[in-house]
Design goal:
The protein is an alpha+beta fold and 278 residues long. 27% of the residues lie in helices and 25% in strands. The protein is built from nine helices and eleven strands. The strands form three sheets. It has a four-stranded antiparallel β-sheet with strand order 4-5-6-7, with no helix packed on it. Strand 4 and strand 5 form a beta hairpin. Helix 4 runs parallel beside helix 7. The two termini are 37 Å apart. The relative contact order is 0.07.
Length: 278
């Protein structure tokens, strides 16, 4: 239950600017409002959005909700709201509620205390170095070459920190027999990156049995790789010239099978995600 709550907070924080206009504030509970105002990570342009959210919610039921306004204002990080915006909002509230002393009841001294950081969403730039056509034949590379290639292929940079260095992101654990790799493709978007690996099965070099695996890394958490567990149609493993794209929380794979172009997709937002062909 605790993990579900944390996941819900992450979802709300990331999509907050899109969610707020869609809310029916008349039916929105006080608990939800408190949860939003207590978020540490929120993808918002500035804290004044929280100020507007409180007032829009209170206006929907003035008589009942005005009693909790002071409690809610205490959750706003007013040191990150411009003085002009804050005074304008407080003046409007006082006029609407006919409370000339509302401003004096708010601890405005918090504006000059930089103790509470601004809400933000981690920004991590991820670069994946694709395999150039001249280097795409992994069979010509040694074990050491492939390992070095993988370790240098994904690099990250923390955009929230000043002068942060580029750092390598370790690839998924692909085993020790790297010589069987046929193709590697990448995709990414939002907070997720994917590594798609096709490897040869069987002991013979000319074996026509292949396995395609998809690894995912959720950057919102401590970066770690996990293999997607959804069953793949047998045709997926036969694809060559693989290309991948991730958008709308859907992973798309395209490639060739015996000279014909094919495509598959996996909708990660569906209740039970499964690979489908288009």
């Amino acid at each position: 239950m605790e993990q579900l709550t944390e996941a819900s907070k992450l979802f709300v924080g990331y999509h907050l600017t899109d969610l707020l206009p869609e809310l029916s504030l008349v039916d929105t509970s006080l608990d939800f409002v408190r949860m939003v105002l207590s978020l540490e990570m929120a993808k918002i342009s500035n804290e004044s959005l929280m100020l507007d959210f409180i007032w829009d919610w209170v206006k929907c039921d003035l008589e009942t909700r005005k009693e909790v306004m002071k409690q809610l204002f205490a959750l706003v990080r007013i040191n990150h709201v411009s003085e002009k915006k804050l005074k304008k909002k407080l003046k409007k509230i006082e006029k609407r509620l006919n409370l000339s002393d509302f401003s004096s009841s708010i601890d405005l001294s918090r504006r000059i205390l930089p103790l509470v950081p601004a809400r933000s969403w981690p920004q991590l730039m991820v670069l994946c170095d694709s395999l150039a056509s001249s280097d795409s034949d992994l069979q010509e590379l040694s074990f050491a070459d492939i390992k070095q290639l993988l370790n240098q292929m994904i690099t990250t940079k923390d955009l929230e920190s000043e002068n942060s260095p580029w750092e390598s992101l370790s690839p998924p654990c692909l085993g020790v027999n790297l010589e069987v790799f046929q193709e590697i493709a990448f995709a990414g978007g939002g907070d997720s990156i994917f590594v798609i690996v096709k490897k040869q099965l069987g002991e013979e070099e000319e074996s026509d049995e292949f396995e395609l695996t998809v690894w995912m890394n959720d950057l919102r958490q401590q970066p770690s790789w996990s293999k997607l567990s959804q069953h793949q149609p047998s045709e997926v493993h036969q694809m060559s010239n693989i290309r991948a794209h991730f958008c709308w929380n859907i992973l798309f794979l395209t490639g060739d099978i015996r000279g014909s172009s094919v495509g598959y997709f996996l909708d990660l937002c569906s209740y039970e995600p499964e690979w489908r062909q288009w």
